């Protein structure tokens, strides 16, 4: 328990002091030495520690005394209100996807894949291997573990269009999760008070990161084939924005994938406007009927800043993401990321690299694809059967979510609350809109635990909606 | 290598396309089926992938063609200059402490403890245990693993002054390292454009985090017994600042520890001014001749926001820190930290908790204390012997650094460069000043590898200085 004899003495004296009236004189050093069988040095050290803690005070030539101390009381932190002032940049409330749900609840709201969808065996063996390596004791370079940088670059390089130069390992910055990457990218490319275009609806975490940075969001409506490119071009022109945040593949929440025509047109607009696309390829490993086809694979002039996380496909405990950017943009992102987090745990980077380079990784991804297809279709069938009022415009080709529109008269707040009372957790779609929602939507996540209960869950939603 | 037969076909076709002139027609589906012994579904899938990648295009009723593609060329990212504009908030350059040094260099500049000073056995066994636990597969609550929150609270509670209420687990927010904690705290308590008082000299990472947030730093000079409290009070009055960042124990870089009188006076000033102290207790586990005696242990009215990192004492690969704050301040810090990083890897939190709750942890800390004392004294002796020009005002009672003043005529840039040429890595003190340096200082870190070479390193510094 105790570090040393002086610490032991400190503990004994603290007990005595706790019951002594303020101003009581402590026994002399000589007495303490005798009573506690310690050396005078130990006594001096203990008294120094207690003095440092503000518990006793020494009056030279007189003795050592218990300081007057206030009676324990209810805390009053009201003074902080004046010191803190009003919130400069209000942050949106956390979406329900971030809340934990009890085990006995049917969850259609999780933001993270269920354990069945994770490469458990690979993750455990990677942690065991890394435990024996030097990665658990070392600091890594700020831009990341070189081998992991190479891996991120090679993944994108393997699908880069012919004639374009593939990204280099040095174009990669490894991040402690994509959330901090979004912050760094928005600060680096846009900055406080400046406009940024953003698909609507889109990932609430991106809306949150933008709010934290103080970016002015300009929503651009997106449908099953991608954003409305006419509106996109007009928004660039009218706002002077130089960046556009989007999910070209398996958009969260809608599951949409940009058509080749939209992709081509967006690239033209970016070049024409001298603007960045912040491509959040969050579901790269979560394709169902299609592969992710990143915009970054069609650009080598630095217009696309590409963000890819491993948190959802490797494990929620392995907070590792990579951003691929070229030119000055990459330098700014790296500098910002360093100021924000210095570097990413080398242990987590090594675990991530170990998992994605095992032969079992590809096998795992194939199995996930099958499972996601089954889970998605379970919910789709349940919707058709029990909730015909819900309209799903886009059957997602990848990702973890269904985006279902409900009748305009639906009271979403009440629906979510009543479903929760009946043991079904769902997310109102409002959190996925950067501005006012354009309709009443539910985001139904099909990656949560216990897919066998999805049908019953949707049935309950239907009952509650009609009640 | 390949996920499926369609991926294999994609790879084959990409090779063919890479050498084909733009506009070439691809073989028909029937031909591809026959030549590659695959199903028509596979061919269609491969063609869809290539279309998605922008490599081919289909002209309905005619056939599929290789798209025109630009010749690989040198990248021109000049357009980004206009899109990015000038840097809104210039970040200071990274201090030399963050640079890696080659193995054959005598390093007196590291910012992180050498491997000999880390609890290697504890860290490895913690990672092995955690590999078998559920922590490697789960997401944790945003405020941290409850047991780790409790541990952080109990560490401070054990030394809280009698009569004051000890912090609760719910006052703790677990952070992915103290750097991101500094950002969250500065954003939450101060905000962009607002003033914050800061000890001078102080940790360059805090100066960096403040620059990123856009905080206006107001330096308060600090000596061997702490800050000049007269100047501190005046700076609060003149600037209207509501927060003060400081290291009351084992200050980085100077090693100073606030005297009980200074501590008491600072608390009075904080109460009087309705202000926060951001106490960075970075060397809590690195006391040498004294224990850390945190200001937070003498305050329960929410004036002290207490930051403690485990990265330096557990392992640089275990990026885990905790902040203890009470009242609305804690809510703001938690919300900001969530917007910045969502949550901290549960695997790293579990490893940290495992290490600090092993019986071997206390033994390890005692051994570190001995080693640091020896290392510090080695450098002090070497300074007396080889570099009498250096003045060390404060023999550090804890921490990892000596702060040595050199004659005012010293050309620090040249000294550092010339020492580097002679194989000795040292840090010019300028990075530790929020504003202009007040003298020519070296920060000599005594926690780097190979302490046996410290004497020779200091001898070389002396030779270079006198050359």
Describe how the helices and strands are arranged:
2 copies of one chain form a homodimer.
Chain A lengths: L4 H15 L9 H8 L3 H13 L3 E4 L3 E4 L11 H7 L21 E2 L12 H12 L14 H12 L14 E4 L2 H12 L5 E6 L3 H10 L2 E8 L2 E2 L1 H11 L3 E4 L13 H14 L2 E5 L23 E6 L11 E4 L3 H14 L4 H11 L2 H28 L4 E2 L8 E6 L5 H10 L2 E2 L1 E2 L11 E6 L8 H13 L1
Parallel strand pairs in A: 3-14, 5-6, 5-8, 8-9, 9-10
Antiparallel strand pairs in A: 1-2, 4-11, 6-7, 10-11, 12-13, 13-16, 15-16
Walk me through the structure:
Chain A has helices spanning 5-19, 29-36, 40-52, 78-84, 120-131, 146-157, 178-189, 204-213, 229-239, 260-273, 328-341, 346-356, 359-386, 412-421, 454-466, and strands at 56-59, 63-66, 106-107, 172-175, 195-200, 216-223, 226-227, 243-246, 276-280, 304-309, 321-324, 391-392, 401-406, 424-425, 427-428, 440-445. With 467 residues, chain A is α/β, with parallel strands linked by helices. Chain A has 15 helices and 16 strands. In chain A, the strands form 4 sheets. An 8-stranded mixed sheet of chain A has the order 4-11-10-9-8-5-6-7, sandwiched between helices. In chain A, strands 12-13-16-15 form a 4-stranded antiparallel sheet. In chain A, a hairpin with a 2-residue loop joins strand 6 (216-223) and strand 7. The mean pLDDT of chain A is 92. In chain A, helix 7 packs across helix 8. Chain A folds into 3 domains: 5-66, Arc Repressor Mutant, subunit A, CATH 1.10.10.10; 96-118 and 362-466, Alpha-Beta Complex (Aspartate Aminotransferase, domain 1), CATH 3.90.1150; 120-356, Aspartate Aminotransferase, domain 2 (3-Layer(aba) Sandwich).
